[in-house]
Amino acid sequence: MFTFTIRRLILTVPTLLFISFVIFMIVKLSPSDPTGNLPLTIPSEVREQIREALGVNKPLIVQYGLWLKQFFWLEPRIYLEHAFGWDMGTAGEVRLISYQTRSPVMELIMQRMPQTLMVVGTAYLVGTLIALPIGIISAYKQYSVFDQLGTLVSMIGFSVPPFFSGVLVIVLFSVMIPSDSFFWLPSIYDTTHEVTDWESFKYQFRQMIMPVMVLALQITAQISRFTRASMLDNLNQDYVRTARAKGLKEQTVVLVHVLRNSMIPVVTVIALGIPSIFGGAIITEQVFKVNGLGQLLIIAIQGGDVPTVQTLTFIFAILIVLFNLIADVLYGILDPRIRYD
Amino acid sequence: MTDTTQAPAPRNQWWDVWDQYKTHKGALVGAVFFLTIILAVIFGPWLWGIDATHIDIRARNQGPSMAHPMGTDQLGRDTFARMMAGGRVSLAVGLTAMALALGLGTLVGVLAGYFKKLDGVLMRTTDLFLALPLLPLLLVIIMLFRDKLNAAFGPEGGIFILMVAAIGATSWMQTARIVRGDVLAIKEREFVLAARSIGTPNRRMITRHVLPNVMSPIMVSATLGIANAIITESALSFLGLGFPPDFPTWGRLLFDSVDYLQQYPERVMWPGLAISLTVLSVNYMGDGLRDALDPKIRGR
After folding, report:
1. How high is the mean pLDDT in each 10-residue block of chain A (341 residues)?
2. Considering the entire predicted model, what is its pTM?
3. What ipTM was reported for this prediction?
4. Which residues touch B175 (CB under 8 Å, ≥6 apart)?
5. Which residues of A sit within 8 Å Cβ distance of B?
6. Could you say which residues from 144 to 163 on chain B have a Cβ atom under 8 Å away from some Cβ of chain A?
7. Which residues make beta-bridge pairs with B78?
C-alpha cells in the first residue's frame, strides 16, 4: 500500500506539469493584450515599457519556468515565513503580481479562501449528511414511495442548475416574503459580517442557509444516488443472508454489515466530488454575491488579469489531482481486495 | 394448416427496445416534452407573429396577457418570442456540442479499446483531460478567444462556434472511457474472432462488428451530453460570457431577468423553468433508454 501511494504520488508530478503547461499555453496563446485595457493616450513606447515590466516579452518557456518557480518554490517559502516567522531569504524576490490590483496573487487568494471554504465546506457537509440516510433508506425500501420521492428529488437536483435554483430561492425567501418576517432570508452574503455574539451568529446562520442549500441540493442528488446503488449491490450478497441466518438483528445487518461495505465506493465518490464543488461554487458565489475564489476568477477573467487567472485555474486543477489521489489511496485502504501491490 | 406453436415473426430489436422504453412513464413523458420543445423552437417563431427583436417601448414591462402570454421585457420585447428564439440557440448549442463530444469520445474510446498500442497514450490523455478544471477553463477560453472568432465569423457565428467547440472538447472523456471498456469486452467475443478468421480488415471490423454493439452506451451518454451541454451553455451565458445581449438564449434571458428580480420576479421563471424542464426530460429519457437498451432488464 505504501509503495502504491508513493508511486501514485510520483505520477502526479508529470500530470500537474502537463496541466500547468496547458493552462499556461491557453492563457498565453490567446490574442488578449495585458495592456489592452489601458487608456489609448499612453504612447506606444511607454506601452512597450509596461509590457516589458510585466515580463510578457520574454520567451514563452522562460515565462513558464518563472511562473512554476514562483508557484512551487517562492510562494511556499513565503507562506512558511508568515506562518512560523522563519527567515527563508525571500526578501528580494519578485512575487507573482496581479495585473489588476498590483498585489501578490497568492495574497488575493488567501483573502478569498475563507469565504469559499466556509460556504462550500458547509454545503458539502450538509449535502453528504442529507444524502447518506436518503440513499440507505431508498435502497432498503426499494421501489417504495420514499424511494420514488428520493429519485425525483435527485432528478431535480441533477436537472435544476444552481443559477436557477439560487434565483428561485431568492425570489421565494427574499422577494416574496416581507423583510420583517421570520422566514425572510438575506439574498446577499455579507462577508464582512463577524460572529461575536448570539445575535450575529443567528444572522450568519440565516445568510448561509440559501447558498448552502442550493449547493447541497446538487451534492445530495449525486451522493444519494450513488449510496443507493452501492447499497443495492450489497443487499443481495450472500454474506447478508448469512448474517440474517445467524439471527442478527435487522438493524445490525443493514447498518453494520451492509453499510460498511457499501460505504467503500461512496467514500471515494465523496472525495472525488470535492474539487468539482469548487467549480460549481463559481456560479453560486455569483448568485449570492459571495466574494470568494469563484468571484475572484470571474473578475480576473473580465479584467484580463493573466497571472490571477492562471494561478486560480491551476489551483483548481491541483485540487482535482490531489483528491483523485486521495480517492485512489482511500479505496485501497478501505477495500483490501483492491490493494494494488 | 397454420402452425400455432410457431415462434412470432422475427422483428427488429429496436421494437423490443421501444416496448421496454414505453413502460418507463417518466421517460415517455420526457420524450414527448422534449419533442414538443424542439418542434416549438423550430416552428414557433414562424407561427408566432411577433419578432424576438421587435421593440415596442410603449408596451414595456407588461405582465402576461393574451397579446403577450409571458409578458414583455424592459424594452417591450415579447418574452414568448424571445423564449422560442432563445430555445433555438440553446438547443442548437446543446445538440451540436453533444454530437461533437460524442464523436470525439467514441473515436477515442474505439481506438483505445481496439488498438492496444494506442490504449496507453489515449487513456493517459483522457485522464489528463479529466483532471482539468472544466468550468474555469471554459470561462478562460471563451473570454480570451471570443473577440478573434467574432471578427472572423460575426458576433453570433463566432460565439456559437467557440461555445460548441469548447463544450465539445471538454466533455468527451466520460463517453471515451465507457466506450473503451465496452470495446475491450466485445473484442474478446467469439463473433469478433470469427470475423477476424475470415480476414475482415480492421476498418470494417470496427464499423460492422464493434460499433453497432457499443451503440447503447453511446446513446445513453448522448442524452447526458445534451443535458450537460445545455446547462454549461446557460451557465456561461449566466456569467455574462455567452452570446451577445441582443441575441437571446435561455441562460442570457435568465441573466437579464435577474436585474429585475425585485420588481418582476416572475420573469426569471420562464427561462429557468425551460432550462430545468428540458434537462429533466432529457435526463428521464436517458434513464428510460438505459433500461430499454439493457438486454438483462429488457427480458423481464
Report:
1. 80 83 78 64 75 70 78 74 69 71 80 83 89 89 85 85 85 78 76 77 82 87 87 85 88 86 85 78 83 84 79 86 84 74 54
2. 0.82
3. 0.79
4. B101, B102, B104, B105, B106, B109, B217, B218, B221, B225
5. 15, 18-19, 22-23, 26-27, 30-32, 155-156, 158-161, 163-164, 167-168, 170-171, 175-176, 275, 278-280, 282-283, 286, 297-298, 301-302, 309, 312-313, 316-317, 319-321, 324
6. 144-145, 147-148
7. B72
